[in-house]
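User: I've been trying to design a sequence by hand for this structure and keep getting stuck. Would you show me what you'd pick, starting by listing the structure so we're on the same page?

Assistant: Good idea, let's start from the same input. This is the structure you sent:
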């Protein structure tokens, strides 16, 4: 066996080759049949001009103090400081904000994927530090599926529990006749899993099912959301109309008496109000196949046939997480659960529903859940929080009230923003609006290792290490592998671990002991590992000691003997294993939600036209899908060779149907301007019939690159689609992000396109 050191990140585990203390090569972990090419993308950017090697302070902030010329964020040069200079400066600012405005004036929701490795998890380090000095305003939920995180607990009693017990591929193979995938089974996304990946299972899961005779239907604007080898039927419905299609299926099942009444009676609450809505008894509109076909621009007969096929054998319904990241993103998941309940196969091998097969490597994987330990974040000192995607609203509207999942809440007045391990210039919608909001706080602090747009738009930048430069242990709740990550190289310049940064600041503030509890990093790693090992032991399984783990580098947590079947226990005994809903059953109608009185999210699944979609009459004719990128994770390693290899002419490719391109005089490889009222970006046109006409695709992740730095209305030269996407909550219930409800137009860019400068560092002043 190879003895090269192991490292892990969200995209996989690799053996690392080093020369002269620098990583020079990475090979997929020997047990991984399908390693992701993303990992080695770090090799050429671990050092060089994009690497941040000293603490940096924006010049105007340094000279004029907090709040100075905030419109010059992203414009001003930075002044490089030593840690000895930086620490007292930042400690003083923290004291000022806390004493003058209170701890809730600090926003440190700090959403983002950071790196794998349990101890060096940047957001946890930040939150633990801030909790030792009184706390901060935080955030709840994710960008991934916030609408479901709010909605599904009302329907099933929990969302995470069922995400983590998705019926596995080995239950599908041999049992599932028909796999109906809303949003496809995007293997590109299965490269990733939060917290680390041991071996990749999505491709083999699909292949096993196919070999065992499962047939696939891909309902998606992109044919490429399913591997060609699956031979799937492709139904290119209009984006954001999945709920209507599901309602049309429900209508057919009812009309043709194909639904399982016994299942609905025994396991579900409130089918009647839903039935009345589907038949049109409540609003005079039958949600029949014709009605759905009109909305989705499919054939009514296709929808009817699909419903019949679904009822004639064992059917799995998969709903991609992307279906939540759209206006009314609560509805498609709820409607899919209702249809699966009507089919009566929930809890049977290969039947029922699943949330997003291959949205990440674990969905459909075969593993025992890891009750993993983590760095304790300390006692919360501040009660205020926001639903994570409301960041711009928070900064723009202090004191304003808003609704969230049955509560009436108020935005606090934020003076200092701190991000460690996430990138709002990647993840947030309507970057122009966010840039206006970004001018409001007096101080913005960022921990980063590379000069991305977030670092360039900060006041204070604290340089951190990468996962190659520290040892740690990594495991995910949803992956069977535990990896001992080895430090393979030294961090350049003054870059240091986030933990060391917070420890230094804690020292300046006189709270070092409270922050470290007297533990060195190695002691913490051991502590986290031992907590995990103990919890695993309580489940009757064994893990090696840490020293032994470090000898071999990895440990496989034994998976369960039988394939996982979601809700099999509930099906076997719905009383003893009642769901954690008020009725103990699946709530197809939910009184709690109905009582909230939200017109945008009533008591059962409904079709509500999204604010932007192809059925809307307006100026912008194309639906933009800004889905997850194939060659990277979000914005991470966009500057590295692997991601750059996926660009064309240095810009993000935009996939266009040849008919849409021809209508606009756009040819293959042209530089195009994609635009709407919110903004514009330049991309390179890629013509393909993998996409439904009327839809355009630009992956997320290209580093934001304004043609006029600091200008919220600037063109993005590089192709970040979030200059175009709307910043609006899914509903008053979920308040999730709605990136996938976005209309645009596109034109050929005439003249000489401006050079891409996304990967150029800012101007840096070295004093003395
Ligand atoms: N248009 C559109 N927008 C989207 C989406 C979409 O589908 N369409 N998807 C959304 C989704 S699902 C998500 S989850 C978000 C993801 O959004 P984010 O998770 O915010 O994106 P990342 O690029 O992963 O940001 C992680 C950051 O952490 C930094 N980092 C890595 N390691 C370390 C470390 O050790 N210490 C510190 N301090 N920093 C570190 C990286 O350099 C990077 O800048 O994006 C959302 N945005
Ligand atoms: N390589 C890679 N993998 C990743 C990530 C990454 O950045 N890179 N990010 C990870 C993260 S944080 C997350 S949350 C998951 C997200 O996983 P998903 O939410 O599944 O990711 P997307 O790629 O946005 O969407 C999947 C597909 O849904 C389709 N789609 C979009 N809108 C609609 C619609 O309205 N109806 C239908 N039927 N289909 C639609 C798109 O064609 C898209 O390709 O991916 C994870 N995996
Ligand atoms: Mo996500």
């Amino acid at each position: 066996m190879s003895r090269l050191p192991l490292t892990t990140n969200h995209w996989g585990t690799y053996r690392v080759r080093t020369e002269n203390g620098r990583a020079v090569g990475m090979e997929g972990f020997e047990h991984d049949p399908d390693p992701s090419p993303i990992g080695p993308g770090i090799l050429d950017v671990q050092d060089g001009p994009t690497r941040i090697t000293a603490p940096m302070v924006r010049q105007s902030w340094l000279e004029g103090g907090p709040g100075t010329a905030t419109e010059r964020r992203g414009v001003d040069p930075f002044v490089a400081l030593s840690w000895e200079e930086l620490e007292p400066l930042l400690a003083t600012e923290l004291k000022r904000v806390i004493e003058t405005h209170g701890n809730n004036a600090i926003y440190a929701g700090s959403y983002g994927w950071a790196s794998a490795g349990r101890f060096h998890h940047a957001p946890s380090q930040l939150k633990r530090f801030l909790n030792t000095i009184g706390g901060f305003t935080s955030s709840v939920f994710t960008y991934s599926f916030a609408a479901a995180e709010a909605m599904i607990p009302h329907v099933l009693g929990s969302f995470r529990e069922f995400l983590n017990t998705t019926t596995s591929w080995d239950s599908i193979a041999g049992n599932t006749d028909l796999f109906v995938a809303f949003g496809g089974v995007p293997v590109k996304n299965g490269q990733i899993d939060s917290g680390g990946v041991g071996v990749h299972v999505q491709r083999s899961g699909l292949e096993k099912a196919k070999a065992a005779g499962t047939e696939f239907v891909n309902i998606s604007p992109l044919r490429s959301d399913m591997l060609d080898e699956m031979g799937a039927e492709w139904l290119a419905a209009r984006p954001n109309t999945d709920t209507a299609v599901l309602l049309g299926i429900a209508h057919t099942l009812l009309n043709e008496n194909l639904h399982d009444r016994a299942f609905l009676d025994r396991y579900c609450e409130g089918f009647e109000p839903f039935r009345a809505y589907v038949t049109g008894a409540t609003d005079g509109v039958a949600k029949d196949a014709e009605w759905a076909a009109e909305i989705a621009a499919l054939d009514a007969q296709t929808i009817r046939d699909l419903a019949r096929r679904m009822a004639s054998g064992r059917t799995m319904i998969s709903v991609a997480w992307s279906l939540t990241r759209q206006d009314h993103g609560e509805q498609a998941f709820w409607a899919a659960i209702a249809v699966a309940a009507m089919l009566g196969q929930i809890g049977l091998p290969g039947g029922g529903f699943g949330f997003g097969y291959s949205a990440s490597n674990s969905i459909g994987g075969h593993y025992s859940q890891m009750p993993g330990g983590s760095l304790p974040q300390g006692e919360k000192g501040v009660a205020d929080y926001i639903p994570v995607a409301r960041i711009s609203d928070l900064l723009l509207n202090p004191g304003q009230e808003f609704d969230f999942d049955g509560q009436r809440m108020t935005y606090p007045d934020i003076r200092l923003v701190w991000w460690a391990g996430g990138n709002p210039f990647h993840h947030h919608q309507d970057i122009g609006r966010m840039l206006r909001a970004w001018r409001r706080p007096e101080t913005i602090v960022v921990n980063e290792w590379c000069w991305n747009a977030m670092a360039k738009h900060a006041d204070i930048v604290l340089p951190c290490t990468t996962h190659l430069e520290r040892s740690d242990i990594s495991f995910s709740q949803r992956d069977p592998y535990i990896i001992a990550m080895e430090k393979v190289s030294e961090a350049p310049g003054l870059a240091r671990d986030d933990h060391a940064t917070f420890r230094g600041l804690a020292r300046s503030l006189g709270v070092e002991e409270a922050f470290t509890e007297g533990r060195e990093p190695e002691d913490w790693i051991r502590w986290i590992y031992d907590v995990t090992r103990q919890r695993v032991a309580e489940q009757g399984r064994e893990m090696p000691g840490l020293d032994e783990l470090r000898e071999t580098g990895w440990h496989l947590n034994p998976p369960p003997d039988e394939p996982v079947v979601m809700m099999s226990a509930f099906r076997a005994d719905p009383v003893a294993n009642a769901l954690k809903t008020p009725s103990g059953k699946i709530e197809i109608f939910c009184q709690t939600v109905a009582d909230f009185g939200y017109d945008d999210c009533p008591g059962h699944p409904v079709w509500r036209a999204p604010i932007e979609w192809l059925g809307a009459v307006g100026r912008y004719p194309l639906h933009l899908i800004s889905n997850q990128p194939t060659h990277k994770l979000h914005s991470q390693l966009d500057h590295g060779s692997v991601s750059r290899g996926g660009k064309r002419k240095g810009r993000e490719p935009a996939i266009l149907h040849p008919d849409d391109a021809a209508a606009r005089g756009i040819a293959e490889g042209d530089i195009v301007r994609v635009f709407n009222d919110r903004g514009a970006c330049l991309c390179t046109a890629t013509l393909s019939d993998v996409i439904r006409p009327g839809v355009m695709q630009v992956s997320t992740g290209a580093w934001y690159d304004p043609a006029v730095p600091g200008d919220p209305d600037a063109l993005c030269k590089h192709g970040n689609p979030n200059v175009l996407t709307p910043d609006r909550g899914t509903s008053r219930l979920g308040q999730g992000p709605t990136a996938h409800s976005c209309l645009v137009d596109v034109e050929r860019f005439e003249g000489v396109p401006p050079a891409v400068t996304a990967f150029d560092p800012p101007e840096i002043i070295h004093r003395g």
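That's my pick for every position. To get oriented when you compare it with your attempt: The chain has a mean pLDDT of 97. Residues 380 and 500 are 22 Å apart (CA to CA).
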